[in-house]
Please model this.
Amino acid sequence: MTTETPLNDWSAADLARGIRTREVSAVEVMRAHLGRIEECNGSLNAMVAMVPESRALAAAEDADRAVARGDAVGILHGLPTGVKDLMDAEGLPTTHGMAAHAGARPATSDSFIVRRVKQAGAIVVGKTNTPEVGLGTLTFNDLHGVCRNPWDPSRHAGGSSGGSAAAVAAGMLPFADGSDSGGSLRYPAAFCNIVGLRPTPGRIASGRADNGWTAHGVLGPMTRSSMDAALVMAAMSGADPYAPMSIAEDPAQFLDVSPTSPAGVRIGWSADAGGVPIADDVARTHAQARGALVAAGYDVVDLDLAPSLERAEEAWETIEMFNFFGSCRDDVAKYPELLRPDLVRNVRQGEALTAAQLADALRIRTDVFRRWERLFDDVDLVITPATPVVAPPAEVEWVDRVGNVTYDRYFRWQMLANRLTVTAHPVLVTPAGFSDGLPVGMQVVGRHRGERDLLAHAAGIESALGFVERRAPSAA
Model:
């Protein structure tokens, strides 16, 4: 990275290295990103709460003093970041995108994931926009409004981690966090031409209060490349005594990731994840990416994923509705008239589930996981489209039609993501190309607990395709 390149366009890895070596100061980095937020956020609405500028700059000054003293510093030392407005960050309100929480007081402590990135030296500068309680894969709410796409502000940025994706894509933040049970990391990453990683459940410790044992919803990084995602994973991942599913493996493994070459990498390719409707322009772009990977030297074989995903959608819906009941039943009981009708409907559907339905869903999830383990006897990666359409207009609340197929619920068009959630395998979204100037993403699935190899392979794919280097018009 050259010094002529604006600091807000440097990679997270280059910024962290530059601060440690004193090539640049943390104060310079902070000013560049705060300036970018001031420049872009009015049109994108990605950041919904900010710490005072004086506090952010004081933290950056402290970071520079630590480097000058020769202190041991963390791998994200001095990097500004934002926190999805579902997670607590000390000193900032957590509204969950809910009008009912408009008067929320600043949090007095940090969530697990925020504590991890702070321990690695990152400086939290604000909260990122999310739909009400993270509902759906588009970001809009009555409290903060619509989060718009840096590639075209008349379009959605995706959701529910839409604010994080838009902020990273626009150069407002070098990285951010996201969460994902049905594409909430993956759809916005695809729509904004960035990288989002849904890790193996437990790879990043979860502090959720209602069900700390679930494999359904996970946390993960959102960055501009897989190499940056590896750096952030080294900070976010690791065991925690208060997170019962957390994986006790050394997070430093992610500091030793480098792009793999195409030779010897076998990709199982699916055009539709076993039968999900895909718009023609997305299908064409996805097919072009396949051709480019074959030309680069990858061994690409077609897979029929339908048998391995049998009844996955049914299991996802049951578990998702049950989790909404567990998380949101108190809010629905207190003020249903203030909440999005889809949320109320989800909670009531979850409440009405029978023991047999839940038992069946958990059995199906186990069967799907085991079928996917067998898939990796023959391939190193599985690739599917990330979304069925390009980013939709900012006025819509969800996509109700793809091709000749219509949908009756907001989550039906998410099935490219939902089906893969049920596998419990790590899924990384990376850019696959463009259609009429709008990004198209691909889902790259790796072996269970195989994030290190997945990141290395995805970095190789990014080198072959070259799309991670492109910047949105509002980020240029």
